[in-house]
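Q: For a teaching handout, I want to show students what a protein-ligand complex looks like in token form. Below are the inputs, and the small molecule is iron/sulfur cluster. Please produce the holo structure.
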Amino acid sequence: MTGAGTSSTDMEDISRFFRDHDIEEYAVVSASSLHAPVGRRPGDFIPSAQTMILFGAEMDERLFSGTNDEISLKVRAFLNKIRRVEDDLCSALQREGFEASPVRSVILQGGTIKGMLSLAHCAADAGLGVIGDNRLLISPRFGSRIGLGAVVTIKKMEETLRPESSIEGCNHCNKCIRACPEHALAQGTLDIFSCRNVTGSVPGFMRPVVFRFIRFGERFPFSRQILNFLASRKVNACADCLVSCPRFHGDDSDRADQRGGRRTVG
Ligand code: SF4
Ligand code: SF4
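A: Here is the structure, written as tokens, with iron/sulfur cluster included.
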């Protein structure tokens, strides 16, 4: 990317960047326009953050089919693809002299684990979709088969358009809630201490200590580092609340008119 301060060049560059990386959905938004809660704003991530660039990669419908080992391999490859795009985008911005960082870390807040920034909520704010009762983004193009990545930068950039949402979003059918084998989901809330992706990541004998750390460790020295180390060992033990969603298996006919176009500049 070149041409700091020349926004049309920025937009062409960012469009080319995502096209080259085979990413069809993205949004560029001003950091101050996001409705993030205190402590989880782009400015809490990078002081003087100006812009957040979000993107979504389409998940293969068979991502969660196969044996546990096969699923883990496929999910890891998918997440690595997102990380590569984030890293390449950061490198491009840094080459221009702008601080930039991928949004990956998690924090302890209110006795639970949260993303440093909620990518789903930021993406919804940025016009990339709506949040379903399973707390995941439902996008016009990919339904709930979308994996999100994001970069925060001090570079000021022109925003992409935020289209009025006319998509078939969450229909509150409760299929995701009923599908959860641990009853961890209620409408819009998740009990992380029951979710298999958390319990499956911590050996049984360590759960009392780790869960106590999650509940009360917010102010411990190095709590963020410890938490992010634990998060890096997270396993993908379950995706039932995702694959049970009718928007995970969206048929192409209702999305056909939304394919083939990138978000235009504002
Ligand atoms: S990932 Fe599985 S265990 Fe966790 S909330 Fe979803 S359905 Fe429940
Ligand atoms: S399964 Fe139903 S309630 Fe859950 S997110 Fe999908 S559409 Fe919404």
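A: Two things your students might notice: The mean pLDDT is 82. The radius of gyration is 19 Å.
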